[in-house]
């Protein structure tokens, strides 16, 4: 009864104060329907696509399809619940919804959980940049081994990409501008899928490197290696479940994309979500299937690493690796847009909080740097710079438009 009463109180407050909240938060969206689909699809698509073939190899084709469909349906339903909650709570900001449901602890829980999730997502993308970009540069230069130049150092690559590409895109005014980069990112992954299908049609089975793993391979053994499996349960099956569970994670970006949608409505945003998840479902199924049917049980956790055993300096494969790097790099600004929304929300009311948050990010930077976790240190450094620039810019703008002592001054 107490839980029902609290739930009813939350919903009633949302309905009674809905007009007030809308007046406080309302701003017209500027992002078109198509660009919103591109942005949400880009937020869904991540580095996990490279591990789906490995997941299929350790679950079997049928079990993989069942699990992936189940995760897609659950993601669609959870997006529906988010949109309903936003309507009933009268806000498009996660922290406000948490605060109205559970007070100050709810606001902190929403901020903390989404921040940790986004940092984890950014870490996975930047890990790919750190380890793939130097290898791509080395392959283009036809270097057999890493000769130690600074441009072949993964730590430098992450910092340069973060400051030169990710940070400027993250500072764009709204998500509409990122729709173009999201569309380009998706086209890179379509190119990756096309090359994957093409390579499957020209590569023989079994591939020569299969014999390196099997010393006494008979004719029947080679045929078995090229036979697809439909249900698999082995020691690696459990490790594939997190890959599938995070395949459609886009929930921290749903409400920011909703808030920027032109002529927004809950039905329109639900359609954006349906199209985005359906498109990614098709892309995931095709990439997993053709990657698996190319290497079968010998596919590795990172699909591109498996290809390097067949092609060392293949131009098309190098272009694929570059396309994947471009795609994951252009996904990071979408993830960072959550921080922009958070900054704007907090700055409307609590300027001082952002100085505290900026200091915390720099503290985390020094901690990770001292323990030699350079990638995480670079992430906190970039986000800390972002917070500092945003805080100073917004305070200066506020002072310009509302000088101290004026009626509108904070």
From TrEMBL:
Keyword Transmembrane helix attributed: yes
Domain Amino acid transporter transmembrane residue range list: 31-381
Membrane-crossing segments per the record: 33-54, 61-83, 108-129, 150-171, 177-198, 272-296, 316-341, 348-371, 377-397
One Pfam family here: Aa_trans
Source superkingdom: Eukaryota
Protein localization: Membrane
Gene Ontology molecular functions: L-amino acid transmembrane transporter activity
UniProt keyword annotations, A-Z: Membrane, Transmembrane, Transmembrane helix
Record's GO cellular component terms: plasma membrane
Membrane topology summary: Multi-pass membrane protein
InterPro entries: AA_transpt_TM (IPR013057)
Protein name: Sodium-coupled neutral amino acid transporter 4-like
Organism: Sinocyclocheilus rhinocerous
């Amino acid at each position: 009864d107490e839980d029902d009463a609290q739930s009813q109180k939350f919903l009633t407050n949302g309905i009674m104060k809905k007009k007030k909240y809308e007046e406080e938060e309302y701003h017209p969206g500027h992002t078109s329907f198509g660009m919103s689909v591109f942005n949400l699809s880009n937020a869904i698509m991540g580095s996990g696509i490279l591990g789906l073939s490995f997941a299929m190899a350790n679950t079997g084709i049928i079990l993989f399809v069942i699990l992936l469909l189940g995760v897609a349906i659950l993601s669609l339903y959870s997006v529906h619940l988010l949109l309903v909650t936003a309507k009933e709570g009268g806000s498009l900001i996660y922290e406000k919804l948490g605060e109205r449901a559970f007070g100050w602890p709810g606001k902190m829980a929403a901020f903390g959980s989404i921040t940790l999730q986004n940092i984890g997502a950014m870490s996975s993308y930047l890990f790919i940049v750190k380890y793939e970009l130097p290898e791509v540069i080395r392959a283009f230069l036809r270097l057999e081994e890493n000769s130690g130049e600074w441009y072949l150092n993964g730590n430098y690559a992450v910092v340069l990409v973060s400051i030169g590409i990710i940070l400027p895109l993250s500072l764009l005014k709204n998500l509409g501008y990122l729709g173009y980069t999201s569309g380009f990112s998706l086209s890179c992954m379509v190119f990756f899928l096309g090359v994957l299908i093409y390579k499957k049609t020209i590569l023989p089975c079994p591939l020569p490197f299969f014999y390196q793993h099997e010393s006494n391979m008979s004719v029947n053994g080679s045929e078995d290696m090229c036979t697809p499996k439909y249900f698999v349960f082995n020691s690696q099956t459990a490790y594939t479940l997190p890959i599938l569970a995070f395949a459609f994670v886009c929930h921290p970006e749903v409400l920011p994309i909703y808030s920027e949608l032109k002529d927004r409505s809950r039905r329109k945003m639900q359609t954006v979500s349906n199209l985005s998840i359906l498109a990614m479902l098709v892309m995931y199924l095709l990439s997993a299937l053709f990657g698996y049917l190319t290497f079968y049980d010998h596919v590795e956790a990172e699909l591109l690493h498996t290809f390097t055993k067949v092609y060392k300096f293949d131009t098309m494969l190098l272009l694929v690796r570059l396309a994947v790097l471009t795609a994951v790099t252009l996904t990071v600004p979408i993830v960072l847009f959550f921080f922009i929304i958070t900054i704007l929300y907090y700055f409307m009311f609590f300027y001082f909080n952002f100085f505290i948050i900026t200091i915390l990010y720099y503290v985390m930077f020094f901690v990770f740097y001292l323990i030699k976790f350079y990638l995480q240190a670079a992430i906190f450094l970039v986000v800390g710079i972002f917070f500092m620039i945003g805080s100073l810019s917004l305070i200066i703008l506020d002072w310009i438009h509302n000088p101290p002592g004026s009626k509108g001054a904070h």
